[in-house]
């Protein structure tokens, strides 16, 4: 991933983006794919927990919460 690519953590609340790429392998990649984080899917950050982590995202008709650490693996456009 180059410096100009934005991750899911860079997307402001209530702003729609599209998943460009998952920059991970193994179990975390499988988990994200199973949750619906698929290339081309539209995604919108909806909520941030009071502690700041995790964040909840609207994707494919559902609300999914993931950690910032995992959101950094998802490149958006």
Report the average pLDDT across residues: 92
Shape: globular
Q: How do the strands of the widest beta sheet line up side by side?
A: 1-6-2-3-4-5
Radius of gyration: 11 Å
Helix/strand order, N-terminal first: EEHEEEHE
Please report the total strand number as a whole number: 6
Can you walk through the features of this model?
18% of the residues lie in helices and 36% in strands. It has 77 residues and is of the alpha+beta class. It has a six-stranded antiparallel beta sheet with strand order 1-6-2-3-4-5. β4 (55-59) and β5 form a beta hairpin. The radius of gyration is 11 Å and the shape is globular. The two termini are 13 Å apart.
Q: Which characteristics define this entry?
A:
single chain; 77 residues; alpha+beta; 2 helices; 18% helix
Question: What does the secondary structure layout of this molecule look like, with pairings?
Answer:
Elements: E1 6-7, E2 17-22, H1 26-35, E3 42-48, E4 55-59, E5 62-66, H2 68-71, E6 74-76
Antiparallel strand pairs: 1-6, 2-3, 2-6, 3-4, 4-5
Short account of what is shown:
The protein is an alpha+beta fold and 77 residues long.
